[in-house]
Amino acid sequence: MIQPRFKDAPHFKNFWENGNGRQLIDFSGAEVSCKDFEKFALYFYHVDEIGDDVVREVYFTKKFHEASREIEGYIRNGVSATDSVPESIKELFTQTQKVPEWLDDNLLKSGAELCMRSNLDSLISLRDYCLIGGYDYAYLNKPLVVTEALKKGAVKRLSETLDFWVNVTRYSALELHAKGYEFAIKTRLIHSYARLSIKKHYKNWDTENWGEPINSWDMMATYIGFSFVFLHSLQKLGNTFSIEEEHGIFHLWKYVGYLLGIPEQLLPDNKKQATEYFYLWTSIQPPSDKDSVLLAHSLLNESLENPILKFKVQRKSLRYLHICCTWFLLDDEVCKRLQIPEVSNKKLFPKSKILFNKIYDKLVSRDSRIKRGNKDQMKVLGDYLNITKNSNFH
Fold it and tell me: For residue 116, which phi and psi values (nearest 5 degrees)?
């Protein structure tokens, strides 16, 4: 059994006593300790066996594009107990087509509305807090590193993450056979495909220290990033949200996690649970290593490589704004470990954003903000997809 090996390490203590961890505790009212560690630690070596069986039975027995087309057919048309399909397919769709008793459509709607209403702040939060902050956890990044995500390039990686996030956070996106539901199933199978490929081809995978590739505990941490860390970031940028919207965000990502095959007991219902679960997980993660720094810089330099903005000066300005937000949202210590460049007047843009959000909140109705946010987010996604799907851009 793994131990909370880093709970006495300086990076862990500084984060939870003085850094963003302290802010998360204050934000949630949580009481953190390692008393439930053993209950969660076993998930470091637990994976989505159902998804893995589908990949072995479908993807590994035919050409990739044929397997993908077959899976798309099952997603869009559904699978019944009497269908003549592989047993693994029946098992996967028996689970994902069964709507859990706890699912509340009103809460899903509230969560989706907060994602849209927060407009570009949602995308800033995902990129400059959730994604780059995740790179500080060295073991969490190992699947990205060994599958050579750096070679694929940050523009492509960001485009895929944005495509997934936007499509699961729209109205009715997660209904059976809808687009968000489809993205969740496909993402689940991509995780299984990557995990089995790592285990087959990467002989130096250190299971004892790193856990199974893309294990259930790491998946939990990722989805706490999409829900709780995302909420904390919105708050830091001056956004307000109702209790129902807050519960809605957790509910939305709990259901996405359920569709992705994450065990339900790992998916928090509220910010108190999320903090306590996250605390335990961070106790087994070392701080940034050289791979973390490479991933962080790849993401920062994405603005320079991305041809969405026509002129070099625009791209440099965008990179500067993302650097400012990263310094504002993350701990200074984390930024230094990830070697985020120092820039002048780095608090000016985030502080301006906070002021703008307070004024915008008072002047513009909630419905108008939701519509505008949805439109702006879809525009950003469209720009990314035009670049990455209609060319050989890498």
Answer: -75, -45
- Read off φ and ψ for residue 46, nearest 5 degrees: -110, 140
Q: Angle of helix 154-168 relative to helix 366-389, nearest 10 degrees?
A: 140
The 10s digit of each residue's pLDDT in 179-215 is 999 999 999 999 999 999 999 999 999 999 999 999 9
d(CA 323, CA 128): 8
Q: With contact defined as beta carbons under 8 Å apart, do 292 and 135 qualify?
A: yes
Task: Provide the 3-class DSSP secondary structure of residue 237.
Answer: coil
C-alpha to C-alpha distance for 78 and 61, rounded to whole angstroms: 22
Q: Which of 101, 106, 82 is nearest to 93 (CA)?
A: 82
CA dist., res. 390 & res. 288, Å (int) = 35
- Can you give the pLDDT at residue 41? 97
Domain segments of the chain as ranges: 14-45+105-170+193-389, 49-96
Q: Which two tokens stand for residue 355?
A: 């002021």
Q: Which two tokens stand for residue 89?
A: 């397919």
- Reference 213, options 47, 57, 52, 56; nearest CA is 47
Question: Is it the case that residue 394 has pLDDT exceeding 70?
Answer: no
Count Cβ atoms below 10 Å from residue 229 Cβ, excluding itself. 25
pLDDT, average across residues 365-372 = 97
Count CA within 13 A, CB hemisphere, residue 156: 13
Backbone angles phi, psi at 53, to 5 degrees: -65, -40
Yes or no: say if 81 and 90 are a contact pair by the CB < 8 Å rule.
yes
| Chain length of the chain | 394
Q: What percent of the chain is predicted at pLDDT more than 90?
A: 94
Give dist(CA 144, CA 214) in Å, integer.
Answer: 10
Residues 6+ apart with CB under 8 A from 130: 225, 226, 229, 230, 233
